[in-house]
């Protein structure tokens, strides 16, 4: 028989029913404790989460680290003896063990290897390794990371931003927004809310929805102006130049620029033929010190960049296709190789 010290309710049951009674959980056939207030419930749930976490950690089997050397190999035995001479001076084994521990942290938690490129990743271990007064240090827990440490970091960032905020009233603010999509492919436009009195202009791309939104903003706030993105404007112009379509509205641009599309198509054909085979890439690298560049599907300026690179590679490409090595290459694509030449 169990009796609640808060509401004096008595019931039969184990820890599971006691937990359901205090945490006001349903499905355990025991009524919730009416004496548990909202604040007390939060405290109980926090204790329950910490206890659950400790149980999960205790259940995890500790997997030993891999051996630094193969015990049965005579060569490795000699290496171990040599390593022992250096161990006392450079503490190599401790360094290797720490490397294994850090690696396991990445592998078991699914951390991105790009984290190792972060300057903060290196600074935290350098600080810990070079600070002798941290003996017995325990890293911050889950709750500390998501609670007080995060709150302090936010306050710190807010303080760093304060001088910038103070300049808004005197210098004005330009909001530059860029469209992106969430995991459900819904369009998002993210920007920092700074107040209409501080905003001078808003810069977006030239999409119809952005232009329509800008007109609504200008109607509501007469002091805010919309400016189309120059990069997007130039990209649209280059689209009309590099991928001119033969339509009635675009006849002038097509007559003047259709040859650019043909050259870009030829350059793409050459690039795809070379990069499509490792032997051809190896041959290309022997005649050229620069690499071929790919074209992004939606950024038409990259077509100009690709053709500029081809111009830089012109001499090397010519030497490659008139070489005996190119002529004697008879693997798949002989006809294409002749077309490339």
Distance between the termini: 92 Å
Number of structurally distinct domains: 4
Strand content: 5-15%
Envelope shape: extended
Helix % is: 55-70%
As laid out across the biggest beta sheet, the strand order is 3-6-7
Poorly predicted spans: none
Instruction: Report the sheet with the most strands, covering strand number, pairing sense and barrel closure.
Output: 3 strands, parallel
Task: List the keywords.
three-stranded parallel beta sheet, 15 helices, two-stranded antiparallel ribbon, 341 residues, 4 domains
Question: Short description, anyone?
Answer:
The protein is mainly alpha-helical. The chain contains 15 helices and 7 strands.
Describe the structure.
This protein is mainly alpha-helical and 341 residues long. The chain folds into four domains: 58 residues, no CATH class; 66 residues, no CATH class; 57 residues, no CATH class; 90 residues, no CATH class. It is 58% helix and 7% strand. The chain has 15 helices and seven strands. The strands form three sheets. Strands 3-6-7 form a three-stranded parallel sheet.
């Amino acid at each position: 028989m169990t009796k609640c010290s808060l509401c004096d309710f008595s019931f039969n049951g184990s820890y599971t029913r006691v937990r359901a009674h205090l945490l006001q959980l349903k499905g355990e056939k025991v009524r919730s404790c009416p004496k548990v207030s909202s604040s007390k419930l939060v405290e109980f749930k926090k204790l329950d989460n910490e206890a659950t976490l400790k149980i999960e950690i205790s259940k995890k089997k500790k997997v030993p680290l891999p051996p630094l050397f193969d015990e049965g190999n005579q060569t490795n035995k000699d290496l171990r003896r040599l390593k022992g001479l250096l161990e006392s001076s450079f503490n190599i084994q401790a360094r290797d063990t720490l490397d294994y521990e850090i690696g396991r942290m990445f592998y078991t938690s699914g951390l991105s290897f790009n984290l190792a490129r972060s300057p903060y990743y290196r600074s935290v271990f350098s600080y810990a390794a070079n600070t002798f007064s941290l003996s017995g240090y325990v890293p911050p827990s889950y709750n500390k990371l998501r609670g007080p440490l995060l709150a302090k970091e936010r306050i710190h960032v807010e303080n760093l931003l304060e001088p910038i905020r103070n300049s808004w009233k005197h210098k004005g603010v330009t909001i530059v927004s860029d469209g992106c999509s969430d995991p459900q492919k819904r369009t998002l436009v993210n920007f920092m809310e700074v107040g209409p009195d501080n905003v001078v202009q808003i810069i977006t791309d030239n999409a119809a929805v952005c232009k329509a939104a800008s007109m609504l903003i200008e109607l509501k706030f007469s002091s805010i102006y919309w400016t189309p993105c120059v990069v997007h404007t130039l990209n649209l112009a280059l689209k009309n130049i590099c991928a001119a379509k033969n339509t009635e509205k675009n006849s002038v641009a097509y007559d003047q620029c259709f040859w650019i599309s043909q050259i870009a198509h030829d350059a793409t054909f050459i690039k795809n033929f070379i990069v499509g085979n490792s032997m051809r890439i190896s041959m290309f690298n022997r005649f050229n010190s620069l690499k071929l560049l790919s074209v992004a599907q939606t950024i038409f300026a990259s077509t100009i960049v690709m053709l500029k690179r081809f111009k830089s590679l012109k001499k090397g490409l010519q030497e490659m296709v008139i070489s005996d090595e190119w002529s004697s290459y008879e693997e798949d694509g002989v006809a294409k190789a002749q077309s490339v030449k």
